[in-house]
Amino acid sequence: MLNNLKIDFETRSREATISLAASLGARFIGGEVIELLSDLGGGKTTFAKGLVQGIGSKDIVSSPSFTISQEYKAKDRIIHHLDFYRLQEPGIMQNELDEMIKDKSAITIIEWGEIVEGILPSERLVVRLRATDINTRKISIEYPTSYTYLFEESLV
């Protein structure tokens, strides 16, 4: 992910993290790929909940750690939510992920993407969440210039 732009945030509650992510998700047009990175319990699924809410889905978002993938519906969009925490290697997911990303009306959210780094598209948002205390998160978002439209106006 060379030559990416970066923007940093700090949230002081779970609700503020969801609100920030919802503001971002509301700007998606389809075709976006979002990689969520943090330690265990760092806020990836909370951020995913906000994104899905912002895209317009009323579906209940939960971590797909045991199922690897969940699918949510929002108006005319499909949201793929993947969690590779339990995946040992990317081989079994490569074709499925390729198909999801080809659908330019869909949005793909990936937790624990480090495990499948080699098969992720270079054009993606990378959201790094770091817990600094029980409620506070430092959130850093890296994005390619093709995603600049998401940040033309302030998210907060």
What can you tell me about this protein's structure?
The chain is an alpha/beta fold and 156 residues long. The protein has one domain (16-151): P-loop containing nucleotide triphosphate hydrolases (Rossmann fold, 3-Layer(aba) Sandwich). It is built from 3 helices and 7 strands. A 7-stranded mixed beta sheet has the order 1-7-6-2-5-4-3, covered by helices on one side. α1 (14-25) packs across α2 (44-55). 35% of the residues are buried. The mean pLDDT is 88.
Topology summary:
Blueprint: E1 5-11, H1 14-25, E2 33-37, H2 44-55, E3 69-74, E4 77-83, H3 94-102, E5 107-111, E6 125-131, E7 137-143
Parallel strand pairs: 2-5, 2-6, 4-5
Antiparallel strand pairs: 1-7, 3-4, 6-7
Helix pairs in contact: 1-2
By DSSP (H or I, 4+ residues per run), the number of helices equals 3
Between the first and last Cα atoms, what is the distance in angstroms? 25 Å
Oligomeric state of the chains in view: single chain
How many beta-strand segments?
7
- Overall structural domain count: 1
Average predicted confidence as pLDDT: 88
What is the level 1 CATH name? Alpha Beta
Tell me the CATH topology.
Rossmann fold
Give the radius of gyration: 14 Å
